[in-house]
Write a structure and sequence with these properties.
Blueprint (H helix, E strand, L loop, with lengths): L7 E6 L6 H14 L6 E6 L14 E5 L16 H6 L2 E6 L2 H7 L3 H13 L3 E6 L3 H5 L3 H12 L6 E4 L13 H17 L7 E4 L7 H5 L6 E4 L6 H8 L4
Parallel strand pairs: 1-2, 1-8, 2-3, 3-4, 4-5, 5-6, 6-7, 7-8
Helix pairs in contact: 4-6, 6-7
The protein binds 2-phosphoglycolic acid.
């Protein structure tokens, strides 16, 4: 049994959407309402300034949405992986499609960030995903393989497959498509000796569809944006793991 195989991951990516008051209320409500869940690893990834203030229940760890590709030094505005580790983070999302498309991050940057996270004994959550154009022209698998191989860390990471066209749109691939793509990604990982890597799905996961997605054999968890902002829907997703 490997270190990951027992649990499913529910990772909340709050993006730039939560203020301080809402975030503290959310954390309090989570502590008051969430039962202990040994088979689920929740992770909350708030904006950087909130990282030191959230008190989370035992089934929920702290994560960050990004970190610097550099170790330390004169990089104004950047946040190092080591500081995130000191502040209590255990996971760091790297290479989210918004970072790649809006802020020009390359797969090389993403790999460097993942290596910084690993060097600080945290787990990188490496995101990949195809555009609508690629999906519609049937290039998804070839594109994802190249993208994954270009940013592949060499150990202990989590992969999150997030079709760009499913993020924040309410449009979700069919369950068969999710399973086929995730199983393909697992094969690619096996070929690199990384077969134990958990593979998460992300993109318009909601309380209503989480149970079916999480029941797929190749889905080891979900990365959730919009539906992680409300305590009710986040709890529903946490409780969708059977
Ligand atoms: P969404 O975002 O759940 O709002 O689609 C997912 C993500 O960007 O990680």
């Amino acid at each position: 049994m490997n270190r990951y195989s027992m649990r499913k991951y529910i990772i909340a990516n709050w993006k730039m959407s939560m203020g301080k008051g809402e975030a503290l209320d959310f954390a309090k409500a989570l502590g008051d309402n969430l039962e202990n869940m040994e088979h689920v690893q929740g992770v909350i990834c708030p904006s950087f300034p909130l990282i030191g203030s959230l008190e989370l229940p035992p089934s929920v760890a702290l994560g960050a949405q990004n970190c610097s590709a550099f170790e330390a030094g004169a990089y104004t505005g950047e946040v190092s992986a080591s500081l995130l580790g000191e502040m209590g983070c255990e996971y760091v999302i790297v290479g989210h499609s918004e970072r790649r498309t809006l802020f020009g991050e390359t797969s090389e940057d993403v790999r460097n960030k993942a290596m910084q996270v690993l060097a600080c004994y945290m787990t990188p959550v490496v995101c990949i995903g195809e555009s609508l154009e690629m999906y519609e022209s049937g290039e998804t698998k070839a594109y994802l393989k190249d993208q994954l191989e270009a940013c592949l860390p060499d150990q202990n990471f989590i992969l999150a497959y997030e079709p760009i066209w499913a993020i924040g749109t309410g449009r979700v691939p069919t369950l068969e498509e999710i399973e086929e793509t995730q199983a393909f990604l697992k094969e690619v990982l096996v070929r690199h000796g990384l077969g134990e890597t958990p593979v998460l799905y992300g993109g318009s996961v909601k309380g209503e569809n989480a149970k079916d997605i999480l029941a797929l054999p190749s889905v080891d968890g979900v990365l959730v944006g919009g539906a992680s902002l409300k305590i009710g829907s986040f709890l529903k997703i946490m409780r969708s793991v059977v």
